[in-house]
Amino acid sequence: VGSTRPQRNADRVLPWLVERAGARDEFDLEVLDLRDWPLPMFAELSSLNGERPEPGYSSPVVERWNRTIADGDGYLFLTPEYNHSFPGVLKNAIESVFESWAFRNKPAAFVAYSRGLAAGIRAVEQLSLVAIDAELVPLRNTVLIARVESAFAPNGEPGDPGTERSLQLLLDDLAWWSAALRDARDRGEVPPAHLRT
Ligand SMILES: Cc1cc2nc3c(=O)[nH]c(=O)nc-3n(C[C@H](O)[C@H](O)[C@H](O)COP(=O)(O)O)c2cc1C
């Protein structure tokens, strides 16, 4: 969950997302809400030359964050659009995984929203580019929710049936890619490029 401010609109989308993803047999879901992860602004000792055999972390919460990300086989990002991109708190959380490369060779799916018509589409475009550098595999299909403040009925159901359909497509893709890449990783991985020079 990539926004943390009080009264965030993320909480209009999150219960629906958790319910739908949790209902699928393919997933053992863990919600990582950045409100619960007080990560410091990035302060890791990057070891791009690979000299250190083990990553060292700036603080215990960063270490715990890296271990938690390492446990995942796939990631579903929930993000609003901030200044034609995604929130800085989410970028910091992605960068905080830099030392362990725990996102590597795993799929990333995106659910985005905004208060206006943009529906978070520019957040997803930018997040996809950032995901590539973390060696995540960004998925093509997305869920985009415009006018988030009126997009869900009081019972939590989306007003637009297309929103529901796009989430099911996204979850189908995420399940397939999570299993496919887990199998591929089990067969062995090439080291990150900076360790192969
Ligand atoms: C700092 C900031 C920048 C924003 N920039 C955009 C933007 O570029 N495009 C857009 O459609 N909405 C923008 N919005 C509106 C957000 O989409 C809307 O406030 C949304 O509810 C934010 O998600 P949150 O409530 O979960 O924090 C911005 C909001 C904030 C707080």
Poorly predicted spans: none
**Total number of strands:** 3
Sheet having the most strands: 3 strands, parallel
Structural class: alpha/beta
Series of H and E elements: HHEHEHEH
User: Which range best describes the helical content: under 10%, 10-25%, 25-40%, 40-55%, 55-70% or over 70%?
Assistant: 25-40%
Total DSSP helices? 5
Name the beta content range. 5-15%
Largest beta sheet: what is the strand line-up? 1-2-3
Shape: globular
Terminal CA distance: 36 Å
- Tell me which ligands are bound: flavin mononucleotide
Give the mean pLDDT: 94
**What is Rg?**
17 Å
Protein architecture, described:
The chain has 197 residues and is α/β, with parallel strands linked by helices. 36% of the residues lie in helices and 12% in strands. The longest helix has 26 residues, at 161-186. The model has no long low-confidence stretch (mean pLDDT 94). Bound molecules: flavin mononucleotide (FMN). The site of flavin mononucleotide has 15 residues, from loops.
